[in-house]
Amino acid sequence: MAADTKKGSGGNNQLLMTLLKGRTLIVLAILFVFFSLAAPNFFNVDSLLSVAKHVALYGILAIGMTYVIITGGIDLSVGAVVGFCGMLAGGFLQEGLTLPMFGVTIYMSVPVVVLVTLVIGVLLGVVNGLIITKLGVTPFIATLGTMYVWRGFANIRSNGATFNDIAGKAGLGNTGFSFFSSSVFGIVPMGVVILVIFAVIAGLVLNKTAFGWHVLAIGGNTNAARLSGIKVDKSLIIVYAISGLCSAMVGIITTSQLMAAHPATGNSWEMNAIAASVLGGTSMAGGVGTIIGTIEGAFVIGVINDGMTMMGVTEFWQQVIRGLVIIVAVVIDQVQRNIQARMALQARNESKNEEKAAATA
């Protein structure tokens, strides 16, 4: 009877674990059904394309956040980097780059603007990584501080104004920024294509390279990783640089979609990135996470946000619901880790019992 009870308990745990691992897809299916009934316009081409555009932004941002959270860290500055990099790109296109010492203004082509903006995003991430690794500041405090710094610089760049003339001029050779908001293969938004590219590369790096294994090892046990020869500080700096790169890319895409750059762009988007990552199975304790899970989480966040907007839910209540989503996601993550720990303990006990039984026989 005791053995049957244990088997039953183990079976229940296995079933619960299966449901928890598939929770994102289950929630996504429920949301699609709910919003299809509650918001009549939700399930049409235009609405779904709008959701796809937002999912692309949240997904790219969450890819960088996933790397950070896997290491046991957090990056609260990603939304501010989106705004700052968007302002840089918009400023380069509208005003050019003025060099007072030479009395000239340089107008860069769109590829150069994009490259410079991405490099700056990487450097902002490196700054976060250096503060954390070299100054010993915890990731939460370090990125909270730089969040305000980057947001301040975004406002300083234009004194709080908007760059609204970023289409460029043919004579200056800086036209074509709308490429990042265009559609390919008929109706697929360019942002979605970029998301797929980022996701494939990030997934391969995480699962198939030594660097990816180092990231997972650092999140699992930083001291053990260091003792095993992993260059923890270097890896962490690269991880935050990846987060900065993803944020800069989102700033470019968003600015292209709006064809304007505003310093408040990306405000609070770090919450969407964290929620998407955790909903997708990335553990806040570190050491666990997948890129495909994060993309699924980004779909959940995008569907929730757009669905509530179509239902006429006010932004205030949307903030409440987004906060609850993050809390629920963290609680579920904790439940899953507790069940995994119990299952591991039960497996060890059963193994010991089998060894004792074999020795007795």
TrEMBL record:
One of its GO terms (molecular function) is transmembrane transporter activity. It is a multi-pass membrane protein. Coiled coil: none annotated. Keywords: Cell inner membrane, Cell membrane, Membrane, Transmembrane, Transmembrane helix, Transport. The keyword Iron does not apply. One of its GO terms (cellular component) is plasma membrane. Pfam families: BPD_transp_2. It is found in: Cell membrane. The keyword Transmembrane applies. This is Erythritol transport system permease protein.
